[in-house]
Amino acid sequence: xxxxxxxxxxxxxxMLVAGGFTVDAWARMRRARRRLAAIDPREARMEQRSANRP
Length: 54
Fold this sequence. Notes:
There is one protein chain. The protein is built from two helices and no strands. By secondary structure, the chain is mainly alpha-helical. The longest helix is centred in the middle third of the chain and has 37 residues, at 3-39. It has a domain at 19-54.
């Protein structure tokens, strides 16, 4: 394995792991917002108001 192959593999693996962390954080945030909306309905109203603002 030459240097270029190693570097490309390292960057590819880094991007894959970073992408996995990003998707996991996004999914956790969605679940947390849904759970919060179930507990406190005011949160759902606040989300709707902020979504309607230009």
